[in-house]
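Look over this entry.
=====
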Amino acid sequence: MSQLEAVIFDLGGVVMGSPLHAIADYERALGIPGGFVNRLVVASGPAGAWSRLERGELALDAFYALFDAECAQAGHALSAREMMLRIAAAAQPRPRMVAAIGAIRARGLRTSALTNNWVGEGGATGTGLLADLFDVVVESAVVGLRKPDPRIYELALAQLGVPAARAVFLDDIGRNLKPARALGMRTIKVDDEAQALGELEAVLGFPLA
């Protein structure tokens, strides 16, 4: 039987539809090279508009202008406003993943959302009703830290009250898994829902459907 006590989930691309897919679709629509936005976010680092948005340091209106300028300077024009609308439209809950979270809690394990997000135009972060699925919700825009900063993983573990070795973390971005592994968590990279649930079942030792 698994010795795990908690399962920690990224939201976008894991429990909900993928923002990466929405961005890729937008890049294709504009004829922009695939991966341009992701490369820009990584290259701009903590001082970039995207990171500042996800740490709650920028409102969306301020982000739009700054990110548009960063993209133009990097060689490709786009509308950050349109991109974020596409991301929001894609952020629909994945029913099988939602059901799996319920099955995990029914077995007595604790659950957490650990997500990089932002404050929307209405003042909400977008986690919404999904928050009820989890014992703990850690949002970058609320706590002022964002993955892959190790401190946000430590915060989630502290709020769950479990050691890293007793937790498994699911994310669709490889660089966000590295700090979790370094802390001692088991990790699952989510490429698609069926693959991720199959790997999670194997780690937990019980069915999720």
Observations:
- The longest strand covers residues 110-115.
